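From the pipeline queue, job 12 of 40. The input is one protein chain; the requested action is below.

Action: predict structure.
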Amino acid sequence: MLLPEAFPTWTRWIALPLLLLPGVLRKHATGSWSVSTPLNGPALLLLLFFAPVGIVISALPVVSWIRSCSLAWSVSAFFCIVNAPFAGVRESERASIHRDRLSFALLVCAAAAAILALLAIRTEAKLPVAGSIAEMLPNLFGTILGLPAGADPNELAGVLVLFAPVALAWCIGALHSPREQREGERSPVTGYVLILVFYTAILLTQSRDGLMSAGVATVLTFALLGRRGLLPAGVTLVLLFAAVFAIGSGRMVDSLLFAGKHTGLTFDSVLSFRFVIWDRGLLALRDVLPAGLGFGAFGRVLPELYPVTLSHGAVVLADAHNLYLQSALDFGFAGAVVFLVLIAAALRMSWRAVRLRGPLEYWSIGMFAGLTGFLLFNLFDAVSLGSRAGVGLWMFLGILCRIAPQQTRDERAAQSRRRRIAATVAIVAALGGVLFLAPVRSALRTQHATVVAARAFMVSPEELREARSLTARAARQTPSVGWLQGLVCERLDDVRGRDSAWTALVGWSARYIPLLRLRAPYSRVLAERAVAAQATSAEAHFWLAGILAATDTARAIALYRAGLKYDTDDGLSWYRLGSLLASSDPKQAIAAFGESCVHGDPGANGCLQAGRTAEQIGDIPLAIRWYDKSRYFVARDRAEQLRRGLR
């Protein structure tokens, strides 16, 4: 079930019922399907309702089916962990979690999985030392797992963030336990090994989001431990200072901020283009809010329907680089709410266990810190539901349910009542919205039109004409659908229909101008319309300026200058302005190239061209200053050559 694409479809249908076997056996033995936990309801809703809906409405049913199989295995593993007996421990002694060998064994399994996963990851060198080691690791499991390109290092880092603080807190707990208990799995040596495995694995993934989240989770662990965390925190600081001293503070900061790139620093560059991805994800979500785009379909649909850049046209992303946005794209608004309820319940359970300060304290602190770090990680990346790495989250939640304080009968009854009330309200609200609220019906039509358009683009070209009809009808009530309408017309070679739809869209909102610029980069008619209709849109001015650069240099310069008044941080447009000014006004060109240099130095060219232009007009000291600002070795070498010439 974790590799469904490697097996025939009929084997999946056989495997799915087998996942029910543990529950059936428990029902036969105890009369209950499962131990009651606050996570059962949301988990079952995601698996039994939203995942099937995500397959039925999906633009890519095969992809959604594969994701659903992985989710089914993960949720089944969660219930198996929750319901596994506490071997050798009476029900009244469940608080003594260190005697529950299953939870400890799962922690060890997570460490073993981390080691194996390192033999399947492939990532470019970003960090000193760690990058060199990661490049030397053999790809032993990539081909075996059907991942010849390697496993996703960011997903691996996100899962490890869950378990690393648990190992840390557990080890500190072992150090503070009575000496007679320090044997077997309670030995601090075991904890040292686990800590080494988890934190080394996170480092070797070279995921900056993973390192940041692990750092926050570690600090939180030390803070919750109070005085008991002072000595380990001090040791950790000493080790960090030693590492920084050995590698060099400048090299360390350079790697964390720039990740080996020659370009300059902007907030967007630190987040590795995530702002653009999130923007496209939100545009897609506007079109599919009721039920999503299909489980796991967004990454593959993105380059076709919501392109990021021209150079990324063929790039398929794994997810939206934000778990909460990705969940909404997978399951729609209601599914995202259910997922957030699941996460909130897990966070509440772990915090409640921390507050009790009982025998569970060290485990609870580690799990609360790990879950907090994981949620932070998923603001900037995603271990999405249904991914292979997502199994780790459900294992973690299963352990959490084992260590969490058990609910009383009254609490379970109250929770059951709340669930029934919430389910009733949700069903009534959904039916009422569909029957009586025009905006809901309009959103459903938009949803259907978007999914049909995506399916027509990706797998069923024969549906293009139906998609044109549906998008045209939806666009009358929801102007944003004009974007999809134009795409479908373009695919059908209906240029007039495309321009009509996109002209209306430009007049309605400037939000889609970046997309229009990507799909119709040389359409002067649309660009002129964009500048006229959205006079404060920098993107519209840059679009038209790029079209006119070769034929009307003076107007192109004016357009770039006008656009840069509204967006002074666009380093690429500053560079293009400098290129247009270079032959007629070198001093103004140097100023423009300089602005490009300080606003991200796109392509490592702004600083370089400022220096070259200064060198051409004979101002060598100015050229050296601009060359020195570059991170590109060619510019730095040229600065040194000029410096030697002045001596």
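Job complete. Confidence is low (pLDDT under 50) at residues 87-99, 180-185.
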